[in-house]
Amino acid sequence: MKQILVFVLFAALLCWLMFSPIYKHVLIVRQAVLQQEVNYLLEIGASGSYGYISAGMQQQSRERLERFGMRPEAVAFEIATTSGASATDPGAPVSRGTGIMLRMSYPFEGLFEIDRLIGLTPPGPDERMSAFGMKMSEYVP
């Protein structure tokens, strides 16, 4: 009986040791891609030519993230300004000096399920990784 228990525990530990680096790299890459996309959208959206982050820009961002293996429909955007004005309306761009804040989030998608083998509790299904950024608008009407 002891030998079976030792075998099961050893097998679980071996599986965790073999596969844990893989999903951690996936997590790191996804986080980096999200942050890169936030920085890119803020750079474009807060530029002197735009002053907003439109729904079209968000859709293009989803398409770029899909190339990295992320599900486009799972990406969530939270866009706000320091003045309280809308930063998503191309008809009313955010004027110079007003901050545009962007938070993008994406679900963990069970990346930590293998941690259950060693007794760690993975994030819940509704928890998400996110990236945040803020940039002052340079748009001058």
Can you tag this structure with a few keywords?
2 helices, alpha+beta, 141 residues, 3 strands
Would you give an account of this structure?
With 141 residues, the protein is of the alpha+beta class. The chain has one domain (2-136). The chain has two helices and three strands; from the N terminus they run ααβββ. It has helices spanning 2-45, 55-66, and strands at residues 76-81, 99-107, 128-136. Helix 1 runs antiparallel to helix 2. The protein is elongated. The mean pLDDT is 88.
List the helices and strands and how they pair.
Elements lengths: L1 H44 L9 H12 L9 E6 L17 E9 L20 E9 L5
Antiparallel strand pairs: 1-2, 2-3
Task: Please outline what is shown here.
The protein has 2 helices and 3 strands, in the order H-H-E-E-E.
- Kindly report the average pLDDT value: 88
Q: Which band does the percent of strand residues land in?
A: 15-25%
Quote the distance from N terminus to C terminus.
Answer: 78 Å
CA radius of gyration:
21 Å
Neighbour order of strands in the largest sheet: 1-2-3
Strand-and-helix sequence, N→C? HHEEE
- Helical coverage, percent range: 25-40%
Number of helices: 2
